[in-house]
């Protein structure tokens, strides 16, 4: 059975595998992300995957706490929450992605990120 796009995306992020992340996106994907540091926009699967992988690239630990996917009218909704450690500091982060998919790949995505929030040790 083929894994869903949400499973592939979360697995790619968990392993910080830009190639796996890129496989979830159309070659010409339009990607926008609102993070605590501002709006990030990318066009293309490689550029989008590099951005996402980079967010978690300095984490020495990364554990998936929860994830899910559903539909919101004509949009897909993928969300995930990770606990991690970066620069010796534990954090928790949640991201929510609303997207349009065609043929099993994301064509357009809008992501909102909580930012890396402090987590008690």
Word description of this protein:
It is a single chain. It is globular and about 40 Å long. Strands 1, 2, 3, 4, 5, 6 and 7 form a seven-stranded mixed β-sheet that branches. The protein has three helices and seven strands, in the order ααββαβββββ. β4 and β5 form a beta hairpin. By secondary structure, the protein is α+β, with helices and mostly antiparallel strands.
Q: Main attributes?
A:
121 residues; alpha+beta; 7-stranded mixed sheet; 7 strands; globular
Set out the fold topology.
Blueprint: H1 5-14, H2 18-22, E1 25-35, E2 38-43, H3 45-56, E3 59-72, E4 75-86, E5 89-102, E6 105-113, E7 117-118
Parallel strand pairs: 1-6
Antiparallel strand pairs: 1-2, 3-4, 4-5, 5-6, 5-7
| Portion in beta strands | over 45%
Which structural class do you get from the secondary structure elements?
alpha+beta
Radius of gyration: 14 Å
Roughly what is the average pLDDT, rounded to an integer? Answer: 95
Please trace the helix and strand order, writing H or E for each element: HHEEHEEEEE
The helix count comes to 3
Q: Main beta sheet, described?
A: 7 strands, mixed
From the N-terminal CA to the C-terminal CA, the straight-line distance is 39 Å
Low-pLDDT regions? none
Helix content: 10-25%
Number of DSSP E strands: 7
In terms of quaternary structure, the protein is: single chain
**Coarse morphology:** globular
